[in-house]
Every structure is written in structure tokens, then in C-alpha cells.
Write a structure and sequence with these properties.
7 strands; alpha/beta; globular; seven-stranded mixed beta sheet; thrh gene product, domain 2
């Protein structure tokens, strides 16, 4: 019997629709440690504390990161993919990035709905900390969608997406690294937007 609930797609941002912001900044500054992402480090707070310490020690400010972000474009085909999803069904981006980073990227994606976090910045523009919207915000958002009677498909690529993918009615890994696939072999994998479209079309048709 078909599920009568309306369909909703929740997607991660970095690694699915746009390049990793911290990797782009690492390439600009030459700081190799900043290349580490949630694909490499499962503990998000540990990763962020490391990043904030590096920025403080190197006297790098929010503006320095924003200047790099201004030059970042969505992944090839991402704008069309996001627009296609919005034509098919409801679409929300759930990300562990920050509003202070994401605004120019949202403009390039056609302003989809974004739930993410906020940075703490002092008067000199130094990042001093961060404020999570909620602990386990991606998982809790998907749980709330279910309580609102949505049937949810979630897309993600990293360790910090796993709880969201497992909580969704259907969780799909999008072009994940081998270590994530090896650790979570039960999750289906798509490698590009064409495969994701086919998967989504089948999911929508099954409803």
C-alpha cells in the first residue's frame, strides 16, 4: 500500500551541493590541518575546536574565510539538481555549516531553505566559538518532519550525516568516501546527480 504522507527531501550541503568550505580555505592558506572535515573526524566539536584554535593562532578572521567563500561555486550540476528537486517535492538543506558562511552559496543555489548553525565572533572579527541550533540537529529535524507527517528521504556524505540518514524513512549516501561506506554498508549509495535523480524518481513513484 502506498504511503499517503507528502514527500520531503532533506540534504546535506557541503560535499553534496557545494565543495567543502574548509578545504577551499585550507588550499588558500596552505594550512593542511584545515583540510580535515566530518568525512575524516566523526566528532564535530573536536573538529571545530581544532579549527577555531588554528584560526586564532594564525590571526585569521571571519572575513578571511568569507572572501574565499565568495569565490566558491556550487558543484557542477548542483544548481540544476536542487532546482529539479524543488519542482518535484519539498526540499530542505540540513547542514553543520554556519549562516555566516552559507549566504552567498544559497544565492548561487536559488535560495533553498537552509537550517544550520551560527558563529560567535568578537568585535575584531575573530571567531571565538559556535552555537549549535540544537544538539543532533540534523537527526532531530528529520524526526520532526516525521512527526509533521512527512515521508522523508535524506542525502548526506559524511559521518555527521549518519544519524540523519538512519532516522529518515530512507537515507542515501551521496558520493561518500570509502571509510564511510565501509562503516555503514547498509546505506544505499549514489555517486552523482544522475544516479540521485533516478533514485529519487523511483522513491517518489513508490509513494
Amino acid at each position: 500500500m502506498a504511503d499517503p504522507r507528502p514527500r520531503l527531501i532533506a540534504s546535506d550541503l557541503e560535499g553534496v551541493l557545494v565543495p567543502e568550505i574548509w578545504i577551499a580555505f585550507a588550499e588558500k592558506t596552505g594550512i593542511e590541518q584545515l583540510r580535515l572535515t566530518t568525512r575524516d573526524v566523526p566528532d564535530y566539536d573536536q573538529l571545530m575546536q581544532m579549527r577555531i584554535k588554528i584560526l586564532r593562532d594564525r590571526k585569521l578572521r571571519l572575513q578571511d574565510i568569507q572572501e574565499v567563500i565568495a569565490g566558491i561555486s556550487p558543484l557542477p550540476g548542483a544548481e540544476e539538481f536542487a532546482g529539479w528537486i524543488r519542482e518535484q517535492t519539498q526540499f530542505v538543506i540540513l547542514s553543520d555549516t554556519f549562516y555566516e558562511f552559507a549566504k552567498p552559496l544559497m544565492a548561487k543555489l536559488g535560495y533553498p531553505t537552509l537550517f544550520c548553525h551560527s558563529l560567535e565572533v568578537d568585535d575584531e572579527g575573530t571567531i571565538t566559538g559556535y552555537r549549535l541550533r540544537l544538539d543532533e540537529s540534523k537527526r532531530r529535524a528529520v524526526k520532526a518532519f516525521g512527526e509533521l507527517q512527512f515521508h522523508t528521504l535524506a542525502l548526506g556524505d559524511s559521518y555527521n550525516d549518519i544519524a540523519m540518514l538512519q532516522r529518515a524513512d530512507l537515507g542515501v549516501l551521496f558520493d561518500p568516501p570509502k571509510n564511510v561506506v565501509d562503516d555503514y554498508p547498509g546505506l544505499p549509495v549514489v555517486r552523482n546527480y544522475d544516479e540521485a535523480r533516478t533514485f529519487i524518481q523511483q522513491w517518489l513513484a513508490a509513494g
